[in-house]
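Pipeline run #58 for the internal structure catalog. This entry was flagged by the ingest filter as a single-chain record with no existing model, so it goes straight to prediction. Upstream metadata was stripped on purpose; only the residue string is passed forward. Reviewer on rotation: M.T. Logging verbosity set to normal.
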Amino acid sequence: MGCITKHYLNESSILGVWKIEEDINTLLKLVELDADDRKKYKVFASTSRRLEFLSVRALLAELLGKDARIVYNKNNKPFLKDGSRFISISHSHKLTAILCSTTEKVGIDLEYMSSNIGAFAFKFINRKEKITRDPEIRKYHLYLHWCAKEALYKICDKEGISIKQNLTIMPFEVKDSGEIKGAVHTRKINESFDLFYSRYDNYAIVWTKKNYEIK
């Protein structure tokens, strides 16, 4: 299938989504791995991890060209090797997503809605957050909260952040796509964020971007 979405959010930000339907050999033909990438690729024993790895590189090439390279910091946060853009990456099941911007910090998360997320919602939902009781949309609502918090966690890139205690999603009406308000409160960060979400098949996708300074 390849790239199913290539969306310019503004002049400086682009979001892409890749649906993995190719085999490994097909994806290998779409990317140009440097020595570091080849070394990382060989570490993965499972086919699924290799497909994820290659799909990220294939999508990055689709968005920014084949010369774009990803490196990671000590917290495993991705960066472009040339430092030209902020970047955030997510993958789940058969989808891979990348959000990048030349001017704003970014965070994106997508999840395949398969598990009984309600069984462990207590681990990430705090008392300020309101989850619908409607059984038709409750699971989707919970996944949107989880994805939103993951996106906030990624944009902050700080150790010691509690998904439950430091990240709060304001009440919102559940739709197929829309906007969410979120907040991060720690000793070093006190920021509100606009997050945007959409649904694709059985996936929840949430992203955010913002310029802010860590105190």
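catalog note: The chain has a mean pLDDT of 93.
catalog note: The longest strand covers residues 190-200.
status: ready for reviewer M.T.
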